[in-house]
Specification:
Layout lengths: L2 H4 L17 H22 L6 H17 L8 H14 L14 H17 L5 E9 L9 H9 L1 H4 L5 E7 L2 E2 L2 E2 L1 H19 L6 E5 L13 E8 L4
Parallel strand pairs: 2-5
Antiparallel strand pairs: 1-6, 2-6, 3-4
Helix pairs in contact: 2-3, 3-4
Length: 234
């Protein structure tokens, strides 16, 4: 037997290389997006009025969120319009002519919050009014000594308690003509006096100015009024 016939054959080693897949979080993200879409479809299917336009709009918003992962500014307006129109064609619907549909959900939410805050601000608030807590000489923004003593007596009454804000309203009708700048300076002078001499919290005092007072034309009004207003709970 020859030496070549007794030589062992070389072994072949096969190395399997694992391919890198998607990140682990994408599985949970995909499941969550699918569940949200299914929930939306169930809501639409159980609705009393079947609105396919609403269905197309919801799917379009879903596709945009998936492509951008919820980040704003990635798609421009033309790309968003193309996605919405593509979804509407799937339901045999014409393109939606209203360009306002492209407004982002963040902007819409902010507008709703602003509208709610404005409505809440117009609601009547419990308040206490104290007229002429300080008076001034003509053309002056320095409270009279008698007003300083009066403010010391009213210190406990004017100090805002829990949920209250002290509003100081400046008036400056000199010879029947309003002086908005002087009225502002008078209200700020009383505010500074309460903060520095009486220890009032600066964030609990607001200053307002009366620019025009038609009911008091022809009169001399050189004073600052005070209002304790109860703020709504946050």
């Amino acid at each position: 037997m020859s030496a070549a016939a007794t030589k062992p054959k070389p072994k072949t080693i096969v190395v399997k290389v694992k391919k890198k897949g998607a990140p682990a979080y994408m599985v949970s993200f995909g499941d969550m997006m699918t569940l949200i879409l299914c929930f939306f479809i169930l809501l639409v299917s159980m609705a009393k009025d079947q609105d396919y336009g609403l269905m197309a709009k919801g799917i379009g918003s879903f596709v945009m969120s998936v492509r951008t992962m919820g980040l704003t500014g990635i798609l421009d307006s033309s790309e968003k319009e193309r996605i919405f129109d593509e979804m509407r064609r799937r339901f045999n619907l014409p393109p939606e002519p209203d360009p306002e549909r492209l407004a982002s959900h963040d902007e819409a939410s902010a507008q709703e919050l602003t509208r709610a805050e404005l409505v809440e601000a117009m609601q009547p608030r419990p308040e206490r009014t104290i007229a002429q807590v300080a008076v001034f000489e003509a053309g002056s923004a320095t409270p009279l000594n008698a007003s300083r003593a009066y403010l010391r007596e009213l210190e406990d009454v004017l100090r805002p308690h829990s949920g209250e804000v002290l509003v100081l309203e400046g008036h400056a009708l000199e010879s029947g003509r309003p002086d908005a700048l002087l009225a502002q300076q008078r209200a700020e002078a009383v505010r500074d006096l309460l903060i520095h001499d009486h220890g009032f919290a600066a964030d609990r005092i607001e200053v307002r100015t009366w620019f025009d007072e038609p009911d008091l034309q022809g009169k001399e009004v050189r004073s600052v009024d005070a209002r304790l207003v109860l703020q709504p709970p946050r």
